[in-house]
Amino acid sequence: MEQGIYWPSFFFLLFGAISCLFSVAVVLTSNIVRMAFYLVLALAATSGLFFLAGADFVGAMQLMIYVGGTLVLLIFGVMLTGKGPFVSLSTRGGEWILAALVGGSLLATLLPATQAVDQWQGISRDELPQTVSPTATRLGLGLLGARVDKLDQPNPALREGMSGYLLPFEIVSIHLLVVLIGAAYLARAKRRRATEIVE
Amino acid sequence: MAEFLAPYFSTNWQWVAYLLVALVHCALLIGLVAKGALLFIWLERKVSGRIQDRLGPTRVGGKFGWLQTLADGVKLIAKEDVTPGDADRMLFKLAPYVSFCASFAAFIAIPFAAGWAAQNLNTGVFFVLAVLGMEVFGVILAGYASASKWSLFGAMREAAQVVSYEVPLGICAVVPVMIAGSMDLNVIGERQAGWFTNWFVFHDPFTFITFWVYFTCSTASVNRAPFDLAEAESELVAGFHTEYSGLRWSFFFMAEYGSMLVVSLLAAILFLGGWNGPIPITHLVGLTAEQGVLTGVVGGLLGIGNTLFKGAALVTVMIWVRWTLPRLRIDQVMTTCLKYCTPIAAAMFLGAALWNLSGIPFLNDLAPHRAPLEVREALPNSTAQAEPPADGTEQPESNDAVAQGVSSADHETHVAGPVQARR
Amino acid sequence: MTPLFASLLTEPVGVSHYMMVGAVMFVCGAVCMATKRNILGVLMGIELVLNGANINFIAFGSPYLRSDANQLGLDGQLIALFVIVLAAAEAAVALAIALNFYNQHNSIDIDRADELQG
């Protein structure tokens, strides 16, 4: 204990507390814009957790896409509840009790499970890897099919199998394209409906 | 710096060293943002005055009215802070700070000279773009929470505009990243060391055009005229900040001028050589870190001067453009983005990639410059060097692969991915 | 649970701690999906659930968090990237559906989306 406070742990507690608190706040509030705001805070704190775990590229990606995606959610929230600025759909009392029961029991199952394995408890300060190695280049090569992080794999049969993520990457790219076209098709303006709503 | 201070404290008090360093970094950055806003608001008034054949502020602070902004600030602090009756009070009060924090946080990753950043990030370009994109949150929250039609219209316009303009902006920012082979702003800056012909804007004809597209898109993404639809006075009173007054209102302006400076500094580092002057004076005289600590510091300070000068010059151009061009209509703004900027940026990206592969000589080859890999290994504070040579099994491997040209594509796919997703 | 919290500030955290945060986010997301009557609220629940899963992926892939270090290499981060991209795609389609629903029903109350029931 003479070593003093370990600061990464302190920041883990900070970011972890923020993300947990605001996730709960997302559940508890019924105003859609506030929900989106809390969600943004929770997701941004999560990206802090990613940075702490050494996943700098994923953290930045989280900030850009997830938080940016939530921005679009927010805009939709404002647009679709536009008739009265503060329309909120509240949950009925019975549903709250049921949800609290289900959620509580789920949490009661999951939390002990996180403590189940000793290797998961973390490592002592002396055994920590001393260097911070950035991951962006290695991730990029992984997506292109070369796993530079596993070159020391002794088993040649296993090394054969580590062909990286080129195929999933291509599939995801095509998938994104399809999704964009599909979403644009689904959301295209229907003139007739629009006039009805105005009336 | 923290490692330098830490031995002076006992084990239990080492956090004081880190806290001190963090405070110094914060103070420097806040000083920069605040003084930047102070200067640019005054400059805006002077430039607009001259363009309209007026004098602009002349009295406060003696000559040239250079203390005008400070006087304005004092007035704004003294004003009443009004909240509309129907407003969502919490969000209304938070919104300006959200905006300001996003614009301020982007400065964290900007290096002002080689390695002189508050935090050297391996994915610097990406981080700056991501954080800057969050500024629009504050604007939307403000527009919604004000419970006013003008504010809401302004905020929705801003949202549509910023989300769309991030696409060409991202594609443009990828071009220098691809040429330098790294997303680390330090590497990108050092790659352009030497004579001004080494700057990426002169790398090939495609990057030259890319720079102008980037500049247009960055003007739009920070909501400056002629793209300032969100606060179009003639249509929307004052747009998203119609209901704001006093200090909160001035926070929106700090955020606006802060993000103008960020995108300009980013442009300076990505395209205009960053801290490298047009003539490599520091290298000719010998003011580099290799010659000793002190000369390194002097050279670094000169580099900071260079970066800030380039950034300020670009901000001045933004001000000049604002008072020269008329405001576009919202459909014209979207047309500019989707029908012109995005295709041009994509074509320039392809062209620059092909030019880079084919190795046709251009201005860039007039003066000697270092290869990307060499820069990455030579940089003192570079993250690539944080890996000790002893267990360097994986880093050299990846560097070899980089040298084989695999990697020029891998950064680009990364950044292009999220950009696609945003659409 | 005591050994977990006794040295929380003085020792590095482990995968367990990350998984606890992930679990809380996951449960919040699930409850959010179940209780919200607003379509967008349900979407936010989905985002929370995916994010909770992502925390676990990152934690298992990190070399700093477990004693049998770096078994997973970069797999955790790569999968997290795919999850983020797929979440963005899912949000795009879901928002398009929500917009269509709003055009049909003039409301975004998800309880009114029961027209197809038999």
Please write out the topology.
The complex is a heterotrimer of chains A (199), B (423) and C (118).
Chain A: H1 7-28, H2 32-52, H3 56-80, H4 93-114, H5 136-144, H6 156-161, H7 166-186, H8 191-198
Helix pairs in contact in A: 1-2, 2-3
Chain B: H1 2-5, H2 14-51, H3 68-78, H4 89-105, H5 124-133, H6 135-145, H7 149-180, H8 185-191, H9 205-221, H10 233-236, H11 246-271, H12 281-285, H13 293-322, H14 330-358, H15 372-378, H16 394-403, H17 407-422
Chain C: H1 2-6, H2 15-35, H3 39-61, H4 75-105
Helix pairs in contact in C: 2-3, 3-4
Report on the structure:
The complex is a heterotrimer of chains A (199), B (423) and C (118). With 199 residues, chain A is an all-alpha fold. Chain A has helices spanning 7-28, 32-52, 56-80, 93-114, 136-144, 156-161, 166-186, 191-198. In chain A, helix 1 (7-28) packs antiparallel against helix 2. The radius of gyration of chain A is 23 Å and the shape is globular. Helix content of chain B is 65%, strand content 0%. The relative contact order of chain B is 0.13. Chain B has helices spanning 2-5, 14-51, 68-78, 89-105, 124-133, 135-145, 149-180, 185-191, 205-221, 233-236, 246-271, 281-285, 293-322, 330-358, 372-378, 394-403, 407-422. In chain B, helix 7 (149-180) runs antiparallel to helix 9 (205-221) and helix 9 packs antiparallel against helix 11. Chain C has a single domain (12-110), classed as Helix Hairpins (Orthogonal Bundle). The chains are: A mainly alpha (199), B mainly alpha (423), C mainly alpha (118). Chains in contact: A-B, A-C, B-C. The interface between A and C is large, with 96 and 83 residues.
Question: Biggest interface and its residues per chain?
Answer: A-C, 96 and 83 residues
- How large, in whole angstroms, is the Cα Rg of chain A? 23 Å
The whole-angstrom Rg of chain B is 22 Å
What is the C-level CATH assignment of chain A? Answer: Mainly Alpha
Overall structural domain count of chain A: 1
Q: CA-to-CA gap between the ends of chain A?
A: 71 Å
Average residue pLDDT of chain A: 75
Question: Which architecture of chain A per CATH?
Answer: Up-down Bundle
Low-confidence stretches of chain A are none
DSSP E strands of chain A, number = 0
Average residue-wise pLDDT of chain B: 75
What are the salient characteristics of this protein?
heterotrimer, A: 199 residues, mainly alpha, Four Helix Bundle (Hemerythrin (Met), subunit A), 67% helix, globular, C: 118 residues, Helix Hairpins, 4 helices
